Amino acid sequence: MRFSNWKRRQPRTVVALGAIVVVIGGATTSITVDALVRANLDRSPLDAPTRLYARPVVLQPGMELDRAVLGSQLDRLGYRETRRGAVRAGEYRLGSWTWTIGRRGFRHYDQVYSGGLTTIRRSWGGRISSLRDEDGRSLSYVLLEPELLRSVHADSREDRVPVPLTDVPPHLLDAVLAIEDHRFYDHSGLDLTRIVGATVANLQARRVKEGASTLTQQLAKNLFLSSRRSAVRKLREALMALVLEWRHDKDRILEAYLNQVYLGQDGSLGIHGVGRAAQFFFGKDVTALNVSEAALLAGIIRGPSLYSPFRHLESATRRRDLVLRLMLEQGSLSERDYRAAVERGLELRQEPERSPSARYFTDLVTAQLEAAHGPALFERGVAVFTSLDAQLQQIAADAVRRGLARLEARHPRLVSDSAPVQAALVALDPRTGEILALVGGRDYAASQFNRAVHGRRQPGSAFKPIVALTAVARPEDGDEATFTLASMLDDTPLSVETPVGQWKPVNYDGRYRGRLTLREALERSLNVPFARLGLAVGPERIVRTARSLGIESRLRPYPSIALGAFELTPLELTRAYGVFAAEGHLANSLTTLSVIDRTGEVLHQADIERHRVFDSGEAYLVTSALRGAVERGTGQGLRAMGFDGPVAAKSGTTNDFRDAWFVGYTTELAVGVWVGFDDSRSVGSSGATAALPIFAHFMADALGEDGGDEFTMPSGVEVVEVDRETGLVAGPGCRGEREVFLRGTAPEESCSPYWSARRSRSRSSVLGELRRLWDELRHRLERHED
User: Fold this and answer.
1) What DSSP line would sit under 280-325, residue for residue?
2) Radius of gyration (Cα) for the chain, nearest Å?
3) Is residue 725 annotated as a catalytic residue, yes or no?
4) Which of 501, 536, 572, 664 pairs as cysteine with 568 (C-beta 3.0–4.6 A)?
5) What is the DSSP string of 39-65?
6) Nearest-CA neighbor of 151 among 357, 377, 383, 421?
7) Side-by-side strand order, sheet with 98-103
8) C-alpha distances in angstroms, 93 versus 70, 71, 89?
9) If you ran DSSP here, which 8-state letter would residue 627 be given?
């Protein structure tokens, strides 16, 4: 009896329990949705992402400037080229000898730079002859706004320029509502009329032909949900739309939508919001959009990839015309304005080039900022002004790409899809330590490991300038330096007993050359003489020198340190070479120059920390020898590839060709290049073959084939004639060659006329002439040796 009563009551119990579950589940979902809405939309939709900028472009009289380079920079900044009419803000015109730019205003550091019309006149030599403002006044320089490198917004990759609803032109609002939700102000989040109509149309077509999502539902999906289609997602979307309408008024929802909507892709950055889209497609502020442009933006919303005017102009134009027709039918556009807008051509800015690949650099900056200020910094919408030169970064990325393609074309065995040969490049200003360009690998999408900053590899012969500096510098106790560039070194077999066994360094070609000067040993990158030099000055002193040059990686005072046996990073080695370029001054590496919040408050201002670690004369001796390496030694290929400017550089190759280096500098740039495999497989090429071409491409494109300024010899250095066979000062009757010394350190002894006479007799004999010819041929064969 009890069982039968329970059985009769069972359906009612199940229904009651089900109702309770539905009520509890619905309440829980509503509470959860409400919390999500408050957490996202209650945070102002005008919150800007944290934006990382490159350094601004500086134009000044006397500066050499190529038309194509300037046009490329302006295109990346979102300017539009115009060929008729007045040049307005965000536009430019490049004539034969006169260029006009409608500069936009911007903030850099804690200073606001106003925009305005700038006229640039060029001379016959391709240099800027004058800069004038709109009133004809002469300008000493002009700054173009800095290029955006990356946007960081709640761990997303969005690029957005937030705009309040009051700044959005009415015809853009009308266009968006006409195509996306013309009953927006009449429904409460769900448009039942549209749902019924779409359902009927889809049933008749037996496929999904029409959508019924309101603008509020689209916002809910953009804020909280994925784009994957499912019944559960649509139910959640509808519920969230209702909560959005309950908690916020229509204008707030519309403002959020216009700032959140996805409208395309700029390289790796997603274009979100009408503010950034107006700049990206038209090179103008959203407030300046005309009816035709507004209709195009509204039409893109449905399918940014399908209706991108840069990729599918005809489809985009048809979509724009559909929006205009709907605006006419709905009464928001007159017949006359409709016809004018349809007949008006789309005045797009030139399709922007992809921004330079700076993700390795921006990852470094964001990591440093997060370590210093915490992750909350990126939720404040700050502007980060970095040290990166966007033009040099593009040149660096291109040099790495071309250099690796050249290497793989010559050595097909290096080609690998799973573990390709890699490269890293660092370029910095040796005077300030600012990192101007940084490439951490050949493809950021394939590998985010930053080899320029975190990849520790043996530098090989690229470490020898540090050993040379140790030898020619005055000891810490104030005594005179033991060695000069004219000091004689023995290139004979060497065996050294170490705790792990005998160490027997050998030269690149396995041959020995007897006695030669320190300069010749460095220019020709001979291992055995430098192993002897390292033993003579002491491995401990070499370690101290490396530390003084800013190298922080693990080093040990072992004999092999003289040949670069300990690992360090490309950034460390380039920074060390920068000390030679900066005449003995070491500057801390800088990536972030300033951080400014939305109110204009400066949260961080970098100070250039620069201090002297070596005498300018000591640094110059190394520079002189490294210039010789380019002219006569292992860096001669740099001249063969077309770079003729003043430069000091050194190649480096490790055992079995695992690592290839080329590091060098001018008075304004220090650049380091590394090439190798991540798993330390052999590249099969020396630094002069694998890394030098990348260095050469970068320097020629960055500074021009004639390079920068000449190196200046400091007052503490003197030039003396020396005899290369003895290293002694060339006295009367001796044939000498010019050599640089720290003042007062040249040897007092003079070579005897006997030496000169002996050389003269040997050269006059047949055997002597043959020896001379053989030495010259051998030197030519060795010029690429490392």
Assistant:
1) HHHSS-GGG--HHHHHHHHHHTT-TTTS-TTT-HHHHHHHHHHHHH
2) 34
3) no
4) 572
5) HHTSS-TTPPPEEEE-PPEEE-TT-B-
6) 383
7) 80-81, 91-94, 98-103, 116-122, 128-132
8) 11, 9, 12
9) H
Which residues, other chains included, contact 28 with Cβ-Cβ below 8 Å and sequence gap of 6+?
none
Distance of CA 178 to the CA centre of its chain: 42
The angle subtended at Cα 144 by Cα 138 and Cα 150, nearest 5°, is 170
Determine the Cα–Cα distance for residues 136 and 184; give it in Å rounded to an integer: 51
Which residue has tokens 């000044």? 60
CB-side neighbour CA atoms (13 Å) of 742: 20
Give the C-alpha separation, 529 to 494, whole Å. 9
Active site residue 461: yes
Among the listed residues 91, 145, 180, 255, the single catalytic one is 180
Strands, E assignment, 629-736: 648-653, 659-665, 670-676, 717-722
Q: Which pLDDT score is estimated for 700?
A: 94
Amino acid present at 602: V
- Backbone angle region of 227, left / alpha / beta, with phi > 0 → left and psi within -120 to 50 → alpha: alpha
All residue ranges of the chain with pLDDT < 70 are: 1-48, 109-110, 153-160, 191-212, 224-234, 267-269, 351-357, 477-481, 733, 752-786
What 3-state class would DSSP assign to 704?
A: coil
End-to-end CA distance of the chain: 102
Report pTM.
0.77
Catalytic residue among 151, 357, 461, 525: 461
- What is the DSSP code string of 488-504? EEEES---EEETTEEE-
The pLDDT score that the predictor gives to residue 550 is: 96
Output the pLDDT for position 763: 41
For residues 575 and 586, give the distance between their C-alpha atoms in angstroms, rounded to a whole number. 8
